[in-house]
Design brief:
Chain lengths: 148, 657
């Protein structure tokens, strides 16, 4: 028992975002903070948002964001503050500018190109599908045999 | 000694794979050599199997003179996890990969009796070449049975998060899926060499694709379920690079499944089907590279090693480079095949393929973008869930919206109005359900309600398809039943899989939008409420596990004063690795779950001992895992269809003779 408690204490784990000791009093502000946490990367973790992470870094950033929100700063202002400090890498949503435009548009370009190719193929082959007289005769013969 | 024999068997398998290339390659026109090539394929599988057994033996007996065992096992670990430890690390997982690769080679040799002789021999030769690449990598760069000179007394243990039943079977399933696409790849390359791509070829591609895709579906779902209950905050998909790595071949496999039908039934799109066949396994190899090279940070990345990453990248480049070069050379000579009208099942499947390809592009770009930026010296952004939610989700939603029309349209020239008339009831159900959700579920969320409507649309669409096929309510009951019995299993399979997508959408939308969470510091005897449930902390005790110590809380979960279940979340400490983990307690309540974790000990304001307890109410979360299982089951049922069952053609020919 003692061994366990020492071990647990030594780990000094800090809980993630919903920790009661961190929460803001105003529920609307708290909700905004939580939404922001989901978009901010915990830079020392393996691909986790600060909303999920129990690392010290995540806790500190959560604290800063909550303070700023409580001080009445907008989401954009908070994000700008974070990118100024840590670079674009800290946000999980790449900005819609510069080279990132290629990232945002590539999937839709594939959709577009695919659509155009399909249209072209359908148009190229829009040959009349009416049967020639010989084919009509053959078809009539075949259906007759079927009925029999 | 056994470890040395195992290592020797791996070398033998490598040599046998070289022999397989030579014999099968030369055997396209010489039956004797082709037979010898098949023998080499069986031999390679047997040898990798022995090596794998030797590795498991080393893990089970805790032979710490094998460096892999010393680094990843521990004597105190339960037997199941000692066995599973054999593939819970880089080197061991590569042996599992090779085992799957050689096993699929043997499967071609054993079940490919119907294949044209030359196509079969060439396929085996290509499969042998893949074997040489991966076995060569395993033997020369990642020997799983390497000894260390001074063996430690005790091993370093497997990450406790990985000591879990779901994770013990997750890798084998995933690898059967990943590597299953190697058969399709080999068939495609063999067909490109032989220059004959026809309906018969597509007929061969389908069952292998179905099998690989179904395994991959199960593997991904198990991994997701593991993340859900093991990581302790109820998330089930993180758009993590490693998850994406398994999702890309899944998307390509799904596209291939559909385009192969078109090629088989109508002889159309042979080039595109070939392309997808090459792409599916390319994405599998890309996944193997991403997970192991450490170029991307991820929750799951293991054995991060840049040199090995470079080698795997080389293998990827060599194999798929050769495949696509061959494709570029041969594809222009392919005839486009069957004609079809704008409204036809072919068109619907092409649209499905465009959507799946665009979705896979989103995943590919999202996963690799940080790498590309880094290489080009651009500011490196993170690409996470917000990107995928904004790009991937709408693209997929578009595809799913038109999905139910596909099976309703006839080949070659379909009747859009007729399909719409038959689907109106499904549309009515979907819109009604979405409207009800908007009115009744609080808080009110329009987008999530629309998502639910989409889920119901898919399920109802699948039901309408089956009732339409058996002409329910339009012909006498007996006739309907007769038709029901006569429905091909392929029809059942595809309807079930499509309904499974709908089931998944329902769960994903509902859980994501309306889950509830709480976190409270609780002293024994205190209660909190969570979405209509009352959670009471009865006590917190200490448990002595086989290789861990734990604090275990006992919580009673009540609804309306009645006890519905007892939750026993644990907080475990593994002394071997010095790690702490949370063991989640889950109360299954129909489709919902009450999910409880125990956090650290914390004093209450009055100084009494308390514990941080987190509770989540996850409505409809079961559907998230049931949906994909239905998809995989649909795949398995389709696979059992008489028309696809392997070897049937030959047997019926014999019976006729």
């Amino acid at each position: 028992m003692k061994r366990l408690l020492i071990a647990l204490a030594a780990l000094a784990c800090i809980a993630a975002a919903s920790d009661p000791s961190e929460r803001l009093a105003d529920p609307a502000q708290e909700a905004r903070a939580r939404a922001l946490f989901k978009e901010v990367r915990c830079l020392i973790c393996q691909n986790e948002a600060i909303d999920d992470s129990t690392a010290d870094f995540a806790k500190d950033v959560r604290l800063v964001i909550r303070e700023q929100i409580a001080a009445g700063r907008s989401d954009v202002q908070v994000k700008d503050f974070l990118t100024d400090r840590y670079g674009e890498y800290v946000l999980f949503r790449p900005s819609l500018s510069g080279a990132n435009l290629a990232l945002w548009t590539a999937p839709f370009l594939v959709l577009l190109i695919g659509g155009v190719l399909l249209m072209m193929r359908l148009r190229n082959r829009a040959t009349p599908e009416a049967l020639s007289p010989e084919e009509e005769a053959a078809l009539a013969r075949l259906t007759r045999t079927d009925d029999a | 000694m056994i470890a040395e024999l195992g290592a020797f068997c791996l070398i033998l398998a490598f040599v046998l794979s070289i022999a397989q290339i030579a014999l099968s390659g030369a055997g396209a026109n010489r039956p004797v050599l082709a037979g010898a090539g098949e023998g080499a394929a069986f031999g390679a599988m047997a040898m990798v199997g022995l090596a794998f057994a030797a590795l498991i033996h080393a893990f089970v007996t805790s032979d710490f003179s094998v460096s892999n065992v010393a680094a990843n096992s521990h004597t105190a670990k339960p037997l199941l996890y000692r066995v599973a430890g054999a593939w819970g690390n880089h080197e061991g997982s590569m042996v599992l990969w090779c085992l799957a690769l050689t096993a699929f080679g043997s499967a071609i040799a054993a079940f490919g009796r119907d294949l044209p002789r030359d196509l079969k021999a060439r396929t085996l030769a290509v499969q042998g070449a893949l074997g040489v690449l991966f076995l060569g990598y395993t033997v020369f760069a990642s020997n799983p049975l390497e000894r260390i000179i001074a063996p430690p007394v005790e091993g370093a243990s497997l990450n406790p998060l990985l000591q879990d039943p779901a994770l013990a079977i997750h890798p084998p399933m995933l690898y059967l899926g990943y590597v299953g696409f190697s058969v399709v790849f080999s068939l495609a390359v063999a067909a490109l060499i032989g220059g004959r791509i026809d309906a018969a070829w597509a007929r061969w591609v389908r069952p292998w694709t179905l099998a690989a895709w179904s395994f991959l579906t199960v593997g991904i779902t198990l991994g997701s379920f593991w993340a859900y209950y093991e990581l302790g905050w109820g998330g089930w998909w993180f758009w993590d690079p490693v998850e994406n790595a398994s999702f890309m071949p899944w998307l390509m496999g799904a596209a291939l499944l559909h385009s192969a039908v078109v090629t088989e039934k109508r002889g159309a799109l042979p080039g595109w089907t070939l392309f997808l066949a090459l792409a599916a396994f390319t994405f599998s190899m890309l996944g193997a590279f991403l997970v192991r090279s450490g170029v991307l940070t991820s929750v799951h990345a293991f054995a991060v090693d840049p040199t090995r990453g470079l080698l795997l990248l080389g293998i990827l480049g060599l194999a798929s480079g050769a495949g696509f070069a061959l494709f570029a050379w041969r594809a222009p000579s392919l005839t486009p095949g069957g004609l079809f009208a704008p409204v036809s099942r072919e068109s619907a499947i092409v649209v499905n393929n465009i959507v799946l390809t665009a979705a896979a592009t989103a995943v590919l770009f999202g996963t690799l973008w940080p790498l590309i930026c880094e290489a080009l010296d651009l500011p490196t952004p993170s690409v996470g869930p917000p990107f995928f939610n904004l790009v991937f989700n709408p693209i997929m939603a578009l595809g799913l919206l038109i999905l139910p029309f596909g099976p309703m349209l006839a080949w070659k020239r379909g009747d859009a109005l007729g399909a719409a008339q038959r689907l109106w009831i499904a549309a009515l159900i979907a819109v009604g359900a979405g409207f009800l959700a908007l009115m009744l579920v609080s808080p009110r969320k329009a987008l999530a309600s629309a998502g639910l409507a989409l889920g119901f649309w898919l399920i109802a669409g699948a039901v309408v398809e089956i009732t339409d096929r058996v002409r329910a309510f339009r012909v006498p009951m007996a006739e309907t039943l007769r038709r029901l019995g006569g429905l091909p299993r392929g029809a059942w399979g595809s309807s079930l899989a499509h309904a499974g997508v709908g089931v998944f959408i329902l769960g994903a939308c509902f859980e994501t939008s309306w889950k509830l969470e709480l976190a409270e510091i609780m002293a024994p005897g205190r209660s909190v409420t969570l979405g209509g449930y009352e959670l009471t902390l009865d006590k917190v005790g200490v448990v002595d596990g086989p290789n861990y110590l734990a604090e275990r809380a006992t919580l009673t979960v009540r609804k309306g004063g009645r006890t519905v279940c007892e939750a026993l979340p644990e907080r475990r400490f593994y002394p071997a690795g010095g790690q702490t983990t949370q063991e989640v307690a889950i109360c299954y309540r129909g489709l919902d779950q009450v999910y409880v974790t125990l956090g650290e000990r914390r004093a209450l304001p009055n100084g009494d001992p308390g514990w941080l307890v987190r509770g989540y109410f996850n409505p409809w979360v079961q559907l998230i895992f049931i949906g994909p299982m239905l998809m995989a089951l649909g795949g398995a049922i389709s696979l059992s269809d008489r028309r696809l069952r392997l070897g049937v053609g030959r047997r019926s020919k014999e019976a006729a003779a």
